[in-house]
């Protein structure tokens, strides 16, 4: 059974031509690449898949649930439990420590806040000593790992990463990919990466070209 | 991490704005608290002090001044009235009870009131400890007076002349405390009561039947500061005849040695006697056995002052507190007093209403000021939350992306406004009561009646009002938070 499937998705920004997206099908634990140059609609498609923006038409099924059949708050709740989203920027709450950011993610998903599990995850990401640091106190790479920890803590069915390797050199790109694969496997998540970075194309068995 | 923790986290990140908003709310609520508690206390006090008194008869002058001095003990008297004239009025069948009072001295700011036992009946007073006086220079003290100065039975107190604590002290006429009154929540709690004769004696006013006239030109033994005899420009009348006319009434107590009067001519109703010795001069002066008096009579006054000596000596009192026997008296007695005597009759009800309308202007002004401050507090909260939203829209979008619903963000901002005003409101209540405490500490006994630590039901309404201000101030920012668009904000970043 597909973890994620889309059908005839169309999205239209005001005063612009509609964007039509090919249908996607992702099986459980599959690692999928969404490849496309800038301006091809990668981020728009990710927003539709995560329930951030409502499509003009078409459907998105996640674990058999039509996302846009859900009401506003039900969709928010569903997203919190089943989708982990890693933005191009870390987008951590600035006034919260790394630990608090991750605790908030658990809390908003209505999961029990499990501090030992958070520390275990941070240790896996070599971030445990930074648990009580604020985002402005850690490096860019650490910020990205903290963002990964926040996205995966609720063991989402779908883990989405938007341009995770942008502006990284080859060795760091490899390191980030290895980390994402390892984390997705550990937490039983299906991984979808959207990027324009053709260097990583060979790491994926399934690729969609926009 | 629950909503309150999130709210607290957000508020603590904007310490300056949050503090300012809390402070403004607190000031507004504090002023309103002071106004409500003090005006409530004043109202209660006015009621307590005048509820059973239908009329006050005193010297001509300002009726409000007469009421203030005789009932609330906050102003100088308008003057004195002849006891004989007062008695004639008191004999009127339409009057149920007429209680004489004579003012003139104070003890550390607490007025010493010369009166008779019917005063206790008039105010419904009971003696907590000790007994009522049975001779001159015995006093019973109000509960606040006693507690403030740790007075107990047997203590001696020295009155000071005049109505302020700075007056000349009557060192040679100490009063002995013989009783302490139960708290009555009226001005009496702050007074000292004694018999009329004590007041006359302490000022050298001869109240026996003979040598009053003979010694009319005697110099007064006491060097009094007759502040009340000076022209009071503020009130536009002259107090030259007020309180005690010592030019005609002064005498030396030592000259009483040949007195041996008996009050055989006193009315047969006279209830008791008091023996008063003045250095070898044994004269029995008939006054009332006060305990008996309280037990069951209401025409004490006439009987308590021997009418024989009254007629002969031109004695004076400051005022007569009157309770009517029937409502018919309302239209008769004031007219009778004002048109046929040199005295004036003042109605506590009318003057209290007039007083409240005067005070009311000030209270209303302060109340408006407090509401303006509350409005500014609300505006401050609104600006604070609104500006914070500009900085926080990014954080709110992140929270939305993590699963926070629109309602959750709306609620968070509303709760922030409510928390600010709730803290401000509670702080305001504390500040208000603290201010009242300092007011009562700084104003001697004149503000003792303010119930500093009594929380009125209206004060809880103030907290609700503060919360309402917070709610209104945060609604618009909350709607903006509600409409946070995740993709627009995060992708633009």
TrEMBL record, chain A:
Keywords tagged on the record: ATP-binding, Nucleotide-binding, Translocase
A molecular-function term among this protein's GO annotations: ATP hydrolysis activity
Signal peptide: none
Domain ABC transporter: residue ranges: 4-209
SUPFAM superfamilies, alphabetized: P-loop containing nucleoside triphosphate hydrolases
Origin superkingdom: Bacteria
Family: Belongs to the ABC transporter superfamily.
Protein name: ABC transporter ATP-binding protein
Organism: Sphingobacterium hungaricum
């Amino acid at each position: 059974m597909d973890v994620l499937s889309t059908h005839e998705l169309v999205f239209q920004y005001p005063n612009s031509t509609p964007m039509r997206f090919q249908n996607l099908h992702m099986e459980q634990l599959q690692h999928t690449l969404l490849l496309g140059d800038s301006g091809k609609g990668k981020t728009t498609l990710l927003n539709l898949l995560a329930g951030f923006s409502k499509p003009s038409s078409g459907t998105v099924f996640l674990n058999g649930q039509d996302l846009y059949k859900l009401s506003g708050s039900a969709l928010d709740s569903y997203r919190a439990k089943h989708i982990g989203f890693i933005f191009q920027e870390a987008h951590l709450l600035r006034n919260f420590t790394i630990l608090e950011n991750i605790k908030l993610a658990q809390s908003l998903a209505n999961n029990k806040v499990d501090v030992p599990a958070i520390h275990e995850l941070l240790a896996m990401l070599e971030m445990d000593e930074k648990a009580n640091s604020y985002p402005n106190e850690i490096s860019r790479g650490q910020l990205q790992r903290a963002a990964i920890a926040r996205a995966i803590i609720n063991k989402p069915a779908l883990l989405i990463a938007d341009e995770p390797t942008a502006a990284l050199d080859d060795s760091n790109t490899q390191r980030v990919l290895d980390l994402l694969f390892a984390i997705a496997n550990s937490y039983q998540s299906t991984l979808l990466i959207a990027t324009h970075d053709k260097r990583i194309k060979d790491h994926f068995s399934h690729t969609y070209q926009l | 991490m629950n909503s309150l923790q999130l709210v607290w986290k957000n508020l603590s990140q904007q310490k300056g704005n949050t503090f300012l908003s809390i402070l403004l709310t607190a000031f507004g609520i504090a002023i309103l608290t002071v106004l409500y508690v003090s005006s409530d206390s004043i109202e209660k006090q006015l009621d307590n002090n005048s509820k059973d008194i239908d009329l006050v008869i005193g010297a001509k002058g300002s009726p409000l001044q007469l009421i203030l001095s005789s009932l609330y003990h906050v102003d100088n008297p308008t003057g004195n009235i002849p006891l004989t004239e007062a008695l004639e009025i008191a004999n009127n069948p339409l009057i149920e009870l007429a209680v004489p009072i004579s003012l003139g001295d104070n003890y550390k700011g607490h007025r010493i009131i010369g009166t008779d036992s019917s005063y206790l009946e008039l105010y419904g007073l009971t003696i907590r400890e000790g007994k009522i006086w049975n001779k001159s220079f015995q006093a019973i003290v109000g509960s606040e007076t006693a507690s403030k100065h740790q007075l107990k039975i047997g203590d001696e107190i020295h009155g000071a002349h005049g109505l302020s604590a700075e007056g000349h002290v009557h060192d040679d006429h100490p009063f002995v405390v013989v009783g302490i009154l139960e708290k009555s929540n009226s001005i009496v709690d702050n007074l000292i009561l004694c018999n009329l004769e004590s007041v006359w004696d302490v000022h050298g006013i001869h109240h026996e039947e003979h040598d009053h006239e003979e010694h009319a030109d005697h110099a007064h033994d006491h060097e009094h500061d007759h502040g009340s005899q000076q022209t009071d420009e503020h009130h536009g009348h002259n107090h030259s005849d007020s309180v005690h006319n010592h030019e005609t009434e002064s005498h030396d107590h030592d000259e009483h040695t040949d007195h041996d009067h008996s009050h055989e001519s006193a009315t047969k109703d006279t209830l008791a006697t008091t023996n008063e010795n003045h250095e070898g001069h044994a004269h029995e002066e008939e006054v009332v056995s006060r305990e008996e008096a309280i037990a069951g009579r209401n025409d004490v006054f006439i009987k308590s002052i021997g009418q024989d000596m009254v007629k002969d000596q031109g004695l004076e009192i400051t005022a007569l507190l009157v309770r009517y026997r029937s409502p018919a008296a309302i239209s008769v007695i004031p007219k009778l007093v004002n048109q046929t005597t040199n005295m004036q009759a003042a109605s506590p009800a009318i003057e209290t209403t007039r007083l409240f309308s005067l005070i009311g202007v000030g209270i209303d002004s302060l109340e408006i000021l407090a509401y303006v401050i509350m409005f500014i507090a609300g505006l401050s909260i609104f600006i604070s939350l609104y500006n914070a939203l500009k900085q926080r829209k990014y954080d709110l979008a992140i929270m939305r992306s993590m699963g926070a619903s629109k309602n959750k963000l709306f609620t968070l901002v509303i709760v922030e406004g409510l928390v600010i005003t709730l803290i401000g409101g509670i702080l305001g209540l504390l500040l208000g009561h603290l201010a009242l405490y300092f007011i009562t500490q700084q104003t001697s006994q004149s503000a003792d009646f303010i119930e500093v630590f009594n929380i009125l039901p209206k004060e809880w309404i103030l907290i609700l009002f503060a919360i309402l201000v917070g709610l209104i101030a945060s609604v618009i920012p909350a709607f903006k938070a509600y409409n946070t668009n995740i993709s627009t904000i995060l992708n633009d970043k």
